Every structure is written in C-alpha cells, then in structure tokens.
Amino acid sequence: MTDEGRWPHVQHPIVLLAFSGWSDAADAATEALDHIALSSQARDALEIDLEDFMDFQASRPHTVLDASGARHIEWPTIRVRHGRVGETDIVLIDADEPNLRWRTLASDLAEQVAALQPRAVVFLGALLADVPHSRPTPVTCTSVDPEVQARCEIAPSTYEGPTGIVGVLSVTCAELGLPVTSLWAAVPHYVAQSPCPPAVLGLLSAVEDVVSMSLPQGDYPDQSRAWVRRCDELAADDEDLRSYIEALQEQYDAEELPQTTGEAIAREFERYLRRRATED
After folding, report:
1. Out of 6-15, 149-158, 197-206, which region has the weakest mean confidence (pLDDT)?
2. In the chain, which ranges are continuous DSSP H helix?
3. Among 43, 143, 220, 257, which residue carries the largest CB count within 10 Å?
C-alpha cells in the first residue's frame, strides 16, 4: 500500500470504521461516519492507495471535473480522518470494500490501528432485514471488550457464516488484542434505498452507548420522522405491503417488549444527560 499523508499522531483515540458496499445497506454506515466526521470537525490525515486490492472492472474509478473544468480520475482509497469531540481524539477510517487480498489488507490496516493504542475500535455496518419502518431501528451490538459487554449488556458475537471486509478486519483487530465492538443497523428491505435516516440515527445512538460520549444528532430526528411518513404513504397505496408491514410490527413488538427493561430506560436517560452536559 502506498500512503499520501500521515497517520494522526494521537494516542488512545476512539477509532471508527465503515466500508461501503456489502456491509453498508442504504449507505447508513458510511453516512453515520461522515456525520461524526462533520460534528468532530475531522480533517483528512491520510489516503491509502487501494490499487493492489481492487478489481477495477468490478469497482470502477470515477471521472470527475475540477473547478477549472479539467478532467481527473478518482481512484479508490482508504481515507483516514482525525477529529475531536471535547477532549477525545477520534480517528475515522472509511473505504470501498476491496475485491482482492483481504488477509493482507486486514493485517496491514489492523497493525496501523493497533499502533494508535486505541481505547475503542468500533465498526459500523448496516444490513437489509425483515424489520418494520414504523419502529425504532434495531442495532445489533457485539463486543470483545469486557467493559462494553458489562455496560451495554451484550455478549461476544456467536455468528457463523459468510462475512465481508468488516468481519475480517474486526476479527483481525481482535486477534491483536484491540477492544473491538461491531454495530449493525437493520434497514427494512422493502425500502432499502438511500438515505435511511432512522438507521443512521440508530448507529449514532449506539456509538454513544459504546464510547459513553454525546454526539450531535443534527437534523436526523426530523429526517427520520419525515422518512417514516413517506413510507406510510407508500404502504397506504399497497394493501399487500400494508399487511406485510403489520405482520412485521407484531413480530417486532413481541420480540422487543421483554427487552424494555429498567437498564434500557437508564441508558436512554444517560444519553439525555450527556447531551444536556454537552449543550451546557
């Protein structure tokens, strides 16, 4: 890999990663990462060339015009940004999912992340699922960090099956002893187009829980309500879709009701207090 720029000279940052493609339904994961970059005033620190890891017939470069009208080629890279929320350094890493040599890429990138001595490594993902648009977005959280497991009442992942670069890289980072957490937002498969503001909002809230930090939500609460209204209008004109959504709602409510515990309410109250403290 060839690099343009340098890794941020920080220690014990929070490292957030997202990859577009297979692990980014409705672009929710990369959009959440970009929102955190914006709210943390992150600046580009490094770009890592991905030529050795891409099949350009499958993932084609883009032709772009600059301000003067000159034509340039944008090649896929891993982008590394550095921002701060309060006194906490945040390193944000995003890229297109590579096509080739995943083991080499994961090993090299994980070693670079380990050199930062991060206090948390959080992977963001989104997948299509049988969930209703009319309920809060489910976000699955798994972690190898005992502190996160205890605070958020979660367990290590028991998933077995096909995986993407997010799964490969998270395992590689965990094997180096890094405190890895993975967050996956469930996007309703029948409205899978980008954007999906509730999925972005769900990921932002989950990140807050994992790193015990308040993050600005921007206008995502308003966007989410507008998105739900549009989905309701879509369903109103399709009786089969409406019946399907009602069945999903019943299933969701039956599964979520037992989880509405005092601990869940307490976490929501903690989020509220963190935001109030940030605003004050």
Report:
1. 149-158
2. 28-39, 102-115, 146-152, 165-175, 197-211, 220-236, 239-256, 262-279
3. 143
CATH of the domain at 245: 3.40.50.10900
Report pLDDT digits (tens) over 242-279: 999 999 999 998 887 545 555 555 555 565 555 555 55
Q: How many CB atoms lie within 10 A of CB 245?
A: 23
Write the DSSP symbol of residue 24.
B
User: ∠ CA(205), CA(164), CA(5), 5° rounding?
Assistant: 75
Which letter does DSSP use for residue 257 in this model? Answer: G
* Count of domains for the chain: 1
Domain enclosing residue 121, as ranges: 3-279
Q: What is the pLDDT of residues 178-223, one digit of tens each?
A: 999 999 999 999 999 999 999 999 999 999 999 999 999 999 999 9
Residue 90 one-letter amino acid: I
Residues in contact with 232: Cβ distance below 8 Å, sequence separation at least 6, in sequence order: 134
How far is the C-alpha of 254 from the C-alpha of 248, rounded, in Å?
A: 10
